[in-house]
Amino acid sequence: MLFHVRMDVNLPPAMPHEQAEELKRSERELAQRLQRDGQWRHLWRIAGQYANVSIFDVDSVDTLHALLTSLPLFPYMQIQIMPLCRHPSSVRDGDA
Amino acid sequence: MLFHVRMDVNLPPAMPHEQAEELKRSERELAQRLQRDGQWRHLWRIAGQYANVSIFDVDSVDTLHALLTSLPLFPYMQIQIMPLCRHPSSVRDGDA
Amino acid sequence: MLFHVRMDVNLPPAMPHEQAEELKRSERELAQRLQRDGQWRHLWRIAGQYANVSIFDVDSVDTLHALLTSLPLFPYMQIQIMPLCRHPSSVRDGDA
Amino acid sequence: MLFHVRMDVNLPPAMPHEQAEELKRSERELAQRLQRDGQWRHLWRIAGQYANVSIFDVDSVDTLHALLTSLPLFPYMQIQIMPLCRHPSSVRDGDA
Amino acid sequence: MLFHVRMDVNLPPAMPHEQAEELKRSERELAQRLQRDGQWRHLWRIAGQYANVSIFDVDSVDTLHALLTSLPLFPYMQIQIMPLCRHPSSVRDGDA
Amino acid sequence: MLFHVRMDVNLPPAMPHEQAEELKRSERELAQRLQRDGQWRHLWRIAGQYANVSIFDVDSVDTLHALLTSLPLFPYMQIQIMPLCRHPSSVRDGDA
Amino acid sequence: MLFHVRMDVNLPPAMPHEQAEELKRSERELAQRLQRDGQWRHLWRIAGQYANVSIFDVDSVDTLHALLTSLPLFPYMQIQIMPLCRHPSSVRDGDA
Amino acid sequence: MLFHVRMDVNLPPAMPHEQAEELKRSERELAQRLQRDGQWRHLWRIAGQYANVSIFDVDSVDTLHALLTSLPLFPYMQIQIMPLCRHPSSVRDGDA
Amino acid sequence: MLFHVRMDVNLPPAMPHEQAEELKRSERELAQRLQRDGQWRHLWRIAGQYANVSIFDVDSVDTLHALLTSLPLFPYMQIQIMPLCRHPSSVRDGDA
Amino acid sequence: MLFHVRMDVNLPPAMPHEQAEELKRSERELAQRLQRDGQWRHLWRIAGQYANVSIFDVDSVDTLHALLTSLPLFPYMQIQIMPLCRHPSSVRDGDA
User: Fold this and answer.
1) For E47, which of F44, F47, F85 is closest by C-beta distance?
2) Which of A58, A62, A63, A64 to probe the C interface (max C CBs under 10 A)?
3) Which residue of chain J has the CA closest to I40?
4) What's one GO BP annotation on this UniProt entry (chains A, B, C, D, E, F, G, H, I, J) (predicted)?
5) DSSP states of I7-53 as a string?
6) Which of B17, D49, E85, H21 qualifies as a cystine partner to D62, CB 3.0-4.6 A?
């Protein structure tokens, strides 16, 4: 089941540099593991923004919520979710 | 080069049924040809909306504009474009 | 799997009275059948609006989209969907 | 009498961990007591958000306001209220 | 129980003058009867707008919805409702 | 002359409790004196919000501005003003 | 008493040219008479818009509403009103 | 050449009282000098707001920008500019 | 003097094809003449939109307004204007 | 390939003066180098704002993102990007 997720990150300017770097490092590790597992199906940077557009493929909304709230940057993100479904004109197996 | 495109379709209620069907049929044909060509890389329906989220992979903004304005439903669509780039945490070759 | 759906209805003022009544009658029949089936779990009118708030319990986003687009009033509705999940403080079995 | 309430929580990043945990613990206790009393009829988490959608069943607006302002997290919440009424197509006794 | 209601009226420009006048005349009659009954407690015109701000005093949300949808101009109005309660600093008996 | 005023209060979380209480106490005293004087004609709490809807009856805009800026909580309020006038359908002497 | 008024005009495209011209001609006559009377104190066109910014100097809100609703273009205008008062740094007698 | 300028002032709550007073005093001096010079043609307070509406009469956009950024309160203001031109129905020499 | 202008075009769907083509043809002629004159300094299409971003270089706001309202498509455009000035970091003579 | 970029700068009020000056100085150096390279094709100040409108000419979205995120002021900017393409009515070689 597919969900379109936009995440906008806002780290407080006063956060120490090391803390920010450590957060980003652990975020990257988890993001890459979830991509390899297939649950975080696509991940793109929005040009000029500290934000991404992602496509998640999960078995339930509860799983999606658990994944998102487990992200180290979750407390610093604004998240918007749109449920997606297969488009009748799609010809791509991977988009279902 | 990747672009995130959202299209919202609004057909006028007074449009004759056959005209609407013909528009949708030719739209679908072109959408499927562009997907097979690789320029319309992803296409999903937004649940509950007459709208889609798409990822285009084109060699220039001019090409993207030419593709979008050639769509039969273009006169009836609201279109929003966000340029995308590779995310530093992405592990998926197909997302670049 | 639960989804929060808000539907705002806008019938064109020029629609003949009988057509509007027939649409509403068939909408009501389908809404009541889906409620009895358990997929349309809750349905409330928003006071002062021709709009409702609903909770759907479906097995997938595709099912939800199919249900919503099958509604006779669908072409005249604005629909907003929010995926829900169980709240950690909930004590009510029926809310999962 | 039913009210649709959306609560978005924003705890200040600088709040000490224990204080936040104590707030959430006492919030949960009160939320569960009010659910058992029947006044907080439904409670769902919005996926990806520190926010909930709730349905309250109270005898007056004054009661609703008193309940909401008694919540330990009230000073950190944005609250939106929509009065609901029975939908003419509803078949569910519990939705009135 | 008090509700703050804002009504914005939009009559279609093509509506025949007599139909508009008849609608307004019957609207005025009902508005005045509801004011005398005490359910439509206050009614003010917003300067420069075809819109009003009203305070309703009703025994339930269902009653409020029934009153509003019975207004002859209801199909041509945008309506926004805010539940009110007694302000702790109020000294006026009539505001509860 | 009547004005519809909405005031939303935002006290900084870091304000010491006593200072906040003292501000609210002096705000209440002034609000009650202005209500007794007749210039602050109505005052209601918006349910679920630290906000009020008020009707002022003043002899000029300058008087209204002087009253509002003299409120102890003024530096912490967002204020929106709409000029009102008598509604042609009003039957209530007190609404003019 | 001063009020800042913004008027945006939207004439329906289908309105016959002569009717539009006649409306504008009578609007201009009334606007000029009210300017000479001193009640319509300033009138400027917003560049690139069929819209104006005006300053009215009237003895009451009721007078302002009566003036605005007497304008021939009133049914085709969106109007926004902000009450003004003398600025403490103003040195210009005419701005009070 | 005329420009409509709205300035909303937000002084940080933590600014020491003397610093705020000194800023306001020097702001007032400059504002009054620019009014006497004729470049700041009108200045009004928006009722209930720490905000003003002003009309500037300058020989170029660069001059307008230089004036605005020279204001002592500039770092604490949100500024919106609309270019104005003479209204064809204006009868007032001073509005050109 | 430079102004940033965004124009969004909305031709009514019911406009006959020839009328639309004639409007666009005369629009193009005037746009090209004004570009050669130097008053319409830049003109770009916004990708995916029937809209453009333009830079005008005119001697006054009145001239800008006269140019814009003389465009054949003016009655079908939404126009937004932002005054520009030379950026202190600009190294390009043509941007002043 | 052309992109329209708007940058709004918000430096924290608490930033020491020297740090702000150093940031602006290095920002200016880089901006001027990128203008001379031809990638930052136009740069204008928006009047009355700490903001600019820029036109970038880059070979890809990735290049644009890399340029923008390398700006010393990037962490303090809100950035909005619109892809542009040649306008069919443009007569200016430099606008393609």
Assistant:
1) F85
2) A62
3) J90
4) beta-ketoadipate pathway
5) EEE---TTS-HHHHHHHHHHHHHHHHHHHHHTSEEEEEEETTSSEEE
6) E85
Residue F13 located in a structural domain? yes
- Locus of tokens 């940080």: H12
Quote the CA–CA distance of B12 and B18 in Å, as a whole number: 13
Domain carrying residue C44: 2-84
Query: Hey, are the CB atoms on J44 and I91 less than 8 Å from each other?
Result: no
Domain-embedded: residue I93: no
Interface confidence (ipTM) of the complex: 0.94
CA distance C4 to C44: 12
Instruction: Give domain status of residue F92, yes or no.
Output: no
For residue E17, CA distances in Å to C15, E23, G10, G67 come to: 20, 10, 20, 22
Q: Which position has the token pair 């629909």? A: C79
* CATH code, B52: 3.30.70.1060
Output b/e per residue, A71-92; b: 16+ Cβ within 10 A: bbbbebbebebbbbbbbebbeb
SS3 label, residue B63: helix
Q: Which of G6, G19, G77, G81 to mutate to test the interface with E (most CBs of E within 10 A)?
A: G81
Domain tally, chain G? 1
| 3-state secondary structure string across chain A | CEEEEEEEECCCCCCCHHHHHHHHHHHHHHHHHHHHHCCEEEEEEECCCCEEEEEEECCCHHHHHHHHHCCCCHHHEEEEEEEEEECCCCCCHHHC
Token reading at E73: 């101009």
Place of tokens 């209480």: F21
- As averages over each run of 10 residues, the pLDDT of chain I (96 residues) reads 97 91 97 96 97 97 97 96 95 80
Return d(Cα F59, Cα A76) in angstroms, integer: 49
Query: What does the pLDDT look like over F7-46, one tens digit per residue?
Result: 999 998 889 999 999 999 999 999 999 999 999 999 999 9
Closest CA to J44 of D52, A30, E7, I83: I83
CB contact under 8 A, D84 and E61: yes
pLDDT digits (tens, 9 = 90+) for E19-70: 999 999 999 999 999 999 999 999 999 999 999 999 999 999 999 999 999 9
- D77: number of Cβ within 10 Å: 20
Distance CA B92, CA D82 (A): 44
- In a domain, residue A44? The reply is yes
Does the distance separating the beta carbons of D48 and A68 come in below 8 Å? yes
* Of the partner residues H12, H75, H79, the one whose CB lies closest to the CB of residue J48: H79
Q: Which residue has the tokens 């909770």?
A: C55
Environment class of residue B44 by beta-carbon count within 10 Å: exposed (0-12), middle (13-18) or buried (19+)? buried
Cα J84 from Cα I46, distance rounded (Å): 5
Name residue J93's amino acid.
D
Which residues in chain H are closer than 8 Å to F81, comparing Cβ atoms? 47-48
Distance CA(J13)–CA(J11), nearest Å, equals 6
Give the span between the Cα atoms of I82 and I60, in whole angstroms.
Answer: 14
